[in-house]
From TrEMBL:
GO terms for MF: ATP binding; inositol hexakisphosphate kinase activity; inositol-1,4,5-trisphosphate 3-kinase activity
Keywords for the protein's UniProt record, in alphabetical order: ATP-binding, Kinase, Nucleotide-binding, Transferase
Source organism of the structure: Gopherus agassizii (Agassiz's desert tortoise)
Its EC number(s): 2.7.-.-
Official protein name in the record: Kinase
Biased composition annotated in UniProt, kind: Basic and acidic residues: 37-52
The keyword Flavoprotein belongs to this UniProt entry's keyword annotation: no
Annotated InterPro entries: IPK (IPR005522), IPK_sf (IPR038286)
Catalysed reactions, as listed in the record: 1D-myo-inositol 1,4,5-trisphosphate + ATP = 1D-myo-inositol 1,3,4,5-tetrakisphosphate + ADP + H(+)
Family statement drawn from the similarity comment of this UniProt entry: Belongs to the inositol phosphokinase (IPK) family.
GO BP: inositol phosphate biosynthetic process; phosphatidylinositol phosphate biosynthetic process
């Protein structure tokens, strides 16, 4: 899932971060835990929520940015842009932070990443926060410091489903009419005659078709969405699978600006070097994670890894190359293969 927040007003005075309870490693979800410390942490957050409200430093707002299919105002505090995912999973946090609905798996990943060489390449993590009876992971707003940014979400790897999801779907097969309808909306000839007759498909069939349709299968990544500074937006990349199609989309994203291309290329190379040295990366199956690209008219350009809800630790002693072809059972995800291809494309564009 990709997420973005607009910046608070630059004139706002800096505020100290609100303290939140952060569980010790191994405790899992503190907000839903039943142990003594989990209860104490939850009660501490409730006490903070009862304290008198402070004056909010952000009184004025930028105009709403519309991103189909979601337009979310968060009580008019500041605008939200979400390129892919579920709008209900997010809330605006305090002091320019964002709150993402608790996923214990993602929480554990973020805690570990704060101790890993990948820390500069992921959102800073500030522990847990509770709002309206829900528990959230509290993270850095990655748009802070950008002026009217352009944004792109790239889903990394050759697949966006875990091996365990595929196996579970096979063990409990169920015909899905909704997935059939999504399939025919994009590629009417994709279903078999039997699937057309049933007007439904099995989930494993749909998942594998979806990846083969895009550049996930051919390049190890796919563009999920682009929002440009001029307000133009697109998520119509489901059938973008050839290198020349990707080059065209990326060229439009950066408006042919060589400085931005060069800066992005440097970010990607730095990320690859960090990934190759990361203990976390080599010992996890990284599926459904995205790279978030952000730049503005000043030439500032940055790339972050985001979305770790499907990032799963391997068995002790097992590692992945993230480059070998995926064969069911080997858990390879193709992340580095996709990053290699992305770097090659940016390098070619920079030289042209």
């Amino acid at each position: 899932m990709a997420w973005l927040l607009g910046n608070p007003l630059a004139s706002s005075p800096p505020q100290p971060p609100r303290q939140v309870w952060m569980p010790a490693r191994g405790e899992g979800s503190g907000c839903v835990g039943k142990g003594k410390r989990g209860a104490e942490g939850l009660e501490a957050m409730k006490q903070r929520d009862r304290s008198p409200p402070r004056n909010k430093p952000w009184k004025k707002l930028k105009s709403m940015v519309h991103w189909s299919p979601f337009v979310v105002s968060f009580n008019k505090r500041y605008p939200w842009v979400q390129l892919a995912g579920h709008a209900g999973n997010f809330k605006a946090g305090d002091y320019g932070r964002i709150l993402k609905k608790l996923c214990p798996r993602e929480q554990q990943c973020l805690e570990r990443l704060m101790q890993d060489s990948l820390r500069p390449h992921v959102p800073a993590y500030f522990g847990l926060s509770q709002r309206d009876g829900e528990c959230y992971n509290q993270m850095e707003d990655l748009l802070a410091g950008f002026e009217t940014p352009s944004i792109m979400d790239c889903k990394m790897g050759v697949r966006t489903y875990l091996e365990e999801e595929l196996e579970q779907a096979r063990q409990r097969p169920r015909l899905r009419r909704d997935m059939y309808e999504k399939m025919v909306a994009v590629e009417p000839g994709a279903p078999t005659p039997e699937e057309h007759a049933q007007r439904a498909v099995l989930k494993p069939r749909y998942m594998q078709w979806r990846e083969a349709l895009s550049s996930s299968a051919t390049l190890g990544f796919r563009i999920e969405g682009i929002k440009k500074a001029d307000g133009t937006c697109s998520t119509n990349f489901k059938t973008t699978r050839l290198p020349e199609q990707v080059v065209q989309a990326l060229g439009d994203f950066v408006d042919g600006d060589r400085t931005i291309l060069t800066n992005y290329l440097g970010c990607l190379k730095d990320l690859r070097a960090a990934l190759e040295q990361s203990e976390f990366f080599h010992t996890h199956e990284v599926v459904g994670s995205s790279l978030l690209f952000v730049h503005d008219r000043t030439g500032l350009a940055k790339v972050w890894m985001i979305d770790f809800g499907k990032t799963v630790p391997l068995a002790r002693g097992q590692t992945l190359t993230h480059r070998l072809p995926w064969v069911e059972g080997n858990r390879e995800d193709g992340y580095l293969w996709g990053l290699d291809n992305l770097i090659t494309i940016f390098s070619t564009m920079e030289q042209d």
